[in-house]
Amino acid sequence: MLVFVMGFLAFLAWNNYVRAPKAKAVEPLLVAGFRLVKRLPQSIPIGYQIFSRGGSASADETYKTKLTYQEIRSHYDRELTRNGWVFQKEKKLLDWGKDYGGMTLTYCKGPYQARLDYSGHHSNYEPYFDLSMSWGDESLVELITGKYCK
Question: Lowest CB count within 10 Å: 1, 8, 59, 86, which one?
Answer without folding.
Answer: 1
